[in-house]
Specification:
The protein is α+β, with helices and mostly antiparallel strands. It is built from 18 helices and 27 strands. The protein has two domains: 375 residues, Beta-galactosidase, Chain A, domain 5 (Distorted Sandwich), CATH 2.70.98.10; 100 residues, Serine Threonine Protein Phosphatase 5, Tetratricopeptide repeat. The strands form six sheets. Strands 15-21-22-26-12-11-10-9-27 form a nine-stranded antiparallel beta sheet. Strands 8-14-24-23-20-16-17 form a seven-stranded antiparallel beta sheet, with no helix packed on it. InterPro entries: DUF5107, TPR-like_helical_dom_sf.
């Protein structure tokens, strides 16, 4: 009998910490157009040019974590049908943390021994392991380290199911993930529904990413003969599968550098795209889906010292190697798809163990693919997937929750109120309720603006705790009684849309109404983007003087001074920082850069040899090895500074 119950997970966790109080106005770390698309088909290139966002507004960045895991407990929801046990963590983006084959007593996913955030997501903080649900734009979801609403619902056939849902603020969408284990089913079913309530088309992105153990003989299979590969050199190009030149593209343990392989699946898959990771015995995890989720990808860290170091950075020194098998709406993660106004998109995925003949799946490619297809016909037949999709889309996805399990954010409730006042299409009322009791302190000022037409005026010395986005909010702020915060938020809205001159006018008005470090900093960012480095440096220093305890502001200030070619002033600013700010790893890294720029390599070498740990080091960042080469040119790079994804 299938059961659903609350549970808990205890392991060492480094807390994500408070959100960065500074809105992400400087854009995404990996900007649009950074990839070379000259060798891909025209339709893929067009999809890759469509739908980019300028920043992650209205979300705030999650970058204030440390590398100090403490034994902690998080709540889980557990599904069990006697054959499989699935453990979900609603508070962490609804991550499917564990999927256990109870018959074989084997874990099917990569499950780390600790939970350590690192700078790999759209909002910075990300952690390894399990299956994650990514929506919004290219990258790890805004909800990776944020809670989703969770409730029990009646699943297909009457079995208990878990529903996870949220209001996605970047695109203005409602999404839900429903998971169930049918009686005697060898696979976990996951139904996904995305609803676009907007009166216009929305660029849509979705990828379900699954971390699996990587052994020396793990083979990742998908029904393709070619893939689009990127290996962080900036070019996306087609490669042959399973062998391209001398490179085995289906055995991740033998791939030297970190790489993505987006399989180019044929259109005639009988409605069941799939990907599987199988070990030397022919056993492993298979993920299949209905046809809408057409993309499949292998990600591997590579066999370099840096690739291995990244895995240890995320999972601890004793972590086992892993790779990821992923499934998405488009062929690659560079693309967005146009989702029509008012559309509902649904699909069904399955996750479960696959038992195959090892001689076949590790043999010739056509035979290996045929063997996986044969095994999938037993566990996830295409006809059963299509039947599951029909029942899910027509019945299950529309049913209301039976019992609440945990709450997500209050932003869906705010949006529900806003739409009612603006006489816009309502959000789906029954299947994904956004209740009043989910409203919190971040939503209070915006709810007050909706109800009274006034935005409460906060203390300008305290950073605003939240932001909004969209034309309707801009109109409401313009109509509200004016004070420093209304002008500042109007500037942020214009800034986020790329209207820099308009944003600067609003920021100056905000400063005239009441000086704040937040408007000074935002105006500095406008000046920097308009290549007025002198003004940017002056404004940043004024902002930092007013908010010296905000380490992120110190990082922005010193970075701008170094970009302006003024290391002496950068060192002066660094010398005046509070000790708690000066000790941050990112600030120490800037101190090394400043000494090098000032012609003081011996001071830089002293700092590097003493040891610097940067908790929010970004994926693909190679600053540590570059700095070491400049400061200590005659000494080999220590392994703990080697994060190079390819050499």
């Amino acid at each position: 009998m299938t059961s659903i119950q609350r549970g808990s997970l205890t392991l060492p966790i480094s807390a994500v910490g408070p959100e960065n109080p500074l809105p992400p106005l400087a854009g995404l770390p990996d900007g649009a157009g950074a990839v070379d698309l000259s060798e891909v088909p025209a339709d893929l290139a067009a999809g890759a040019r469509y739908g980019h966002v300028r920043s992650m507004l209205p979300y705030l960045t999650q970058d204030d974590y440390r590398r100090a895991p403490q034994e902690s407990t998080v709540d889980t929801v557990v599904l069990d049908n006697g054959l499989l046990r699935a453990v979900f963590v609603p508070a962490l983006g609804g991550r499917l943390w564990s999927l256990t084959d109870l018959v074989a007593d084997r874990e099917l996913l990569h499950v780390p021994n600790l939970l350590q955030p690192a700078n790999l997501a759209l909002r910075n903080a990300w952690f390894a392991g399990g299956v994650e649900w990514n929506i919004g734009t290219r990258g790890h979801s805004p909800f990776t380290c944020a809670p989703l609403h969770a409730a029990q619902v009646r699943g297909p056939g009457g079995v208990p199911a878990l529903r996870l849902w949220e209001w996605e603020r970047l695109r203005g969408l409602v999404f839900q993930v429903d998971a169930w284990l049918a009686e005697d089913s060898p696979v976990l079913h996951v139904g996904v529904r995305v609803h676009n309530p907007q009166p216009h088309e929305v660029p849509m992105y979705w990828w379900s990413n699954t971390a699996v153990a990587e052994t020396a003989r793990t083979r990742v299979l998908a029904p393709s003969t070619s893939a689009f590969r990127t290996h962080y050199s900036g070019k996306l190009s087609r490669v042959d599968v399973p062998v391209h030149g001398e490179l085995e593209t289906t055995y991740p343990a033998g791939i030297p550098d970190a790489a993505d392989f987006f399989h180019d699946l044929p259109d005639d898959l009988d409605g069941r795209p799939w990907i599987a990771a199988l070990d030397e015995t022919g056993y492993g995890l298979a993920q299949a889906s209905t046809g809408r989720l057409r993309g499949r990808k292998l990600f591997c860290w590579g066999e370099s010292v840096g690739g291995r170091h990244w895995q240890e950075w995320l999972g601890g020194p004793d972590t086992a190697p892993y790779c990821e098998i992923q499934a998405g709406l488009a062929r690659t993660q560079y693309e967005h798809l146009p989702m029509p106004a008012g559309a509902d998109w649904t699909w069904v995925e399955t996750y479960g163990p696959l038992r195959t003949d090892p001689a076949l799946v590790h043999g010739d490619w056509p035979v290996a693919v045929a063997e996986v297809n044969r095994a999938l016909d037993e566990t996830s037949p295409a006809a059963c997937l299509h039947a599951a999709l029909h029942e899910y889309a027509e019945v299950t996805a529309k049913l209301p929750p039976v019992a609440s399990l945990s709450a997500g954010s209050g932003w869906g409730a705010v949006e529900r109120h806003r739409r009612a006042l603006a006489k816009e299409n309502p959000l789906p009322p029954e299947s994904t309720p956004f209740a009043e009791d989910t409203l919190g302190t971040d939503q209070v000022p915006w709810l007050h603006l909706l109800r009274t037409g006034e935005l409460p005026e906060p203390d300008p010395a305290v950073p605003p705790s939240s932001y909004v986005d969209g034309a309707d909010w801009a109109v409401r702020l313009a109509a509200a009684p004016e004070h420093w915060a209304t002008a500042y938020h109007r500037g942020v809205l214009a800034h986020g849309a790329g209207a820099l001159d308009e944003a600067a006018d609003h920021y100056r008005r905000s400063l005239a109404l009441g000086s704040s470090p937040w408007a000074l900093r935002a105006l500095a960012l406008v000046a920097a983007e308009q290549e007025d480095q002198a003004t940017a440096c002056t404004l940043f220093r004024q902002a930092l003087a007013a908010a010296p305890e905000v380490w992120q502001l110190a990082v922005e200030t010193v970075s701008t001074l170094l970009q302006a070619g003024d290391p002496a002033v950068a060192l002066e600013v660094l010398a005046g920082l509070p000790s708690s700010v000066a000790a941050h790893g990112r600030v120490q890294l800037l101190r090394v850069q400043a000494h090098l720029a000032a012609g003081q390599p011996e001071r830089a070498a002293e700092l590097l040899r003493a040891g610097i740990e940067v908790p929010d080091l970004r994926e693909g960042e190679i600053s540590l090895d570059h700095l070491w080469a400049q400061a200590c040119p005659d000494t080999p790079l220590p392994a703990h500074y080697d994060f190079r994804m390819h050499v």
